[in-house]
Amino acid sequence: MTTDPTLTLGVPRQARSSGAARARPVWAILTGPYALLLLFLLIVPLANVALFSIHRYSPTKVALPELTFDNFRKIADLYYLRLFARTLKLGLITTVICAVLGYPLAYWLARVRPRLQAIGMFLLIMPLMVSAVIRIFGWIVILGRKGLLNEALAALGLEPVRLLYTDTAVVIGLVNVFLPFMALPLMAAIERIPPSLEEAARNLGASWYHVFCRIILPLSMPGLISGSLLVYSISISAFVTPALMGNSRERMAAQQIYDEVLVSFNWPSASSLALTLMLLTLGLMFSALYVTRRAARLERRR
Amino acid sequence: MSSRASLLIAPVVGAIYLGLLAPLVVVIAVSFGPSAAFAFPPAGFTLHWFAEFFASDAYVRSFFRVSLVVGVLSGTIATLLGTAAAVGLVRFRFAGREALETFFLAPLLVPEILLAAALYLFYARLTIQASIWTLLCGHLVICTPYVIRSVTAGLVGMDPRLEEAAMSLGATRAQAFFKVTLPLLRSSLLSGAIFAFIISFSDINLALFLSGPQSTSLPVHIFSQIQWQGDPTIAAASTMQIVVIGLMILVVQRIFRLRLLV
User: Which CATH number does the domain housing residue B164 bear?
Assistant: First the structure.
């Protein structure tokens, strides 16, 4: 049973005992520093992006003091539409594969003995914490033209495959990097399903397929939804994986933003792209947060 | 789990773990192999690439003078900021508390690459030069929420009557906190600090935008070496990062519940 600490309502109250008048400034002093940090290093920079996005681009001065919506209108150009379509498509494929792989993994982790579970968790979280560049580098060694995979195929007398710098490689990389974000919420959801439900269904003659479709899938739905939204929103803003494993001409949205900020210095255009992508992912993330909180609330009422 | 079910599922789970861990295993193996062409399995054992790593100014600087320094500073400062914020959120009632709590987790919801671009443009507008300090500021934004989560969990799981007992015996609020609460929070504090360090140490998205030529972090240096088709020194540097992070996660798992943090 996991309790998300941020959701707990049974928080001790004791401000009253020491006098509300004195308690008031104390919370402000305690929470103030990080609140200020976020104000200056999150809110103001985002507002700055919003400001850039409605300014006209100038090749000599970066941005002219002239308001325009052209930067957003330009997103409707074929080039940008295709960029976003590709990004959303690769995100969707990644999410579906993560869900398919995430279920067996999460089910195993949720039901296995505590000792094995600890090992399983370590092996899931360790790669998650290692920098994405390193995992991607590993895949480059495996999938490269003379990589491990092609050596193995050659040893079996098969034709080598060209995987690196294709969409397939990008999806492999994204799934590898983001699978834990699917498996962990799913695992939390499956842990809440009493094993007796499955046993009862099995005793009454249900096949494993039926147990999955009728019991596990519906009862773990909140986990699946929040995991999917999470994986989808981080994979559509992925940069390192497509930059190192993808084709340099067929790119994803974050690569375009990177280039426009650091290479072509078209900051107004980059800002409008970033804002569009940000609103998309924030919408998804807040839905995920809402779904988990709702599920936790329902759980508590039960 | 019934034995039938585990028989069905175990090979699938094994294959998934193989896929998850394969890149790390390959990187570590290549770093000890003699081949400059990333041959796997390695044809022998050598520490040559580690010697190359320590002989390279760029690698040594990015590891020891940038990533490690920024990581330790981020871990320390984020722990101070995050612990204060968590205590404020859990131990006090005030209007807008839940909104503030959501606001404090907001950095985890903004895609890192977009936060990085936003910070870059912000520094650019203020004409602030990239340095380890600009990188540190960015890392504090994303590291602190992990400390808040971990310390909040510790505080919620602790009996508030302990603190009340200390105060009824004459301790001031501050004394009660430092003498009673803080020692009891040791493990969640340490876990939060370690996670903050790891997030900073392995971050690439923020560092791509925020580190300057003199403050290239290890992941960014590895990134550019991969793009320039560098030699297995990349693998040696990666192995060093994997070892540092693996050890730290083992520590967290020993003293705390790992899953509260992800």
Answer: 1.10.3720.10
For residues B119 and B138, is the Cβ–Cβ distance under 8 A? yes
Cα–Cα distance measured from residue A232 to residue A20, given in angstroms and rounded to the nearest whole number: 45
Contact A185, A223 (CB under 8 A): yes
Which residue of B74, B79, B223, B228 is the best one to mutate when testing the A interface, meaning the one whose CB has the most A CBs within 10 A?
Answer: B223
Confidence (pLDDT) at A54: 87
Number of domains observed in the structure of chain B: 2
Regarding whether B66 and B34 lie in a shared domain, the answer is: no
Range of the domain at B11: 1-46
Single-letter amino acid code for the residue at B200: S
With vertex at residue A266, the alpha carbon angle to CA A262 and CA A268, rounded to the nearest 5 degrees, is: 120
pLDDT for position A10? 39
- What are the boundaries of each domain within chain A? 77-301
User: Taking residues B69-97, what's their average pLDDT?
Assistant: 92
Give the count of beta carbons closer than 10 Å to the beta carbon of residue B8.
12
Q: What is the pLDDT of residues A138-191, one digit of tens each?
A: 999 899 877 888 888 888 888 888 888 899 999 999 999 999 999 999 999 999
Task: Write out the E strands in B104-173.
Answer: none
Closest to B151 in 3D by CA, of B238, B89, B103, B204 = B89
Dihedral (Cα; B15, B21, B26, B27), 10-degree rounding: 170
Q: B32 and B66: one domain? A: no
CATH 1.10.3720.10 fits A77-301, yes or no: yes
Which chain A residues touch B20 with a CB distance below 8 Å? Answer: 123-124, 127, 176, 179
Looking at this protein, which amino acid is placed at residue B167? M
Contacts of B250 in chain A (CB under 8 A): 122
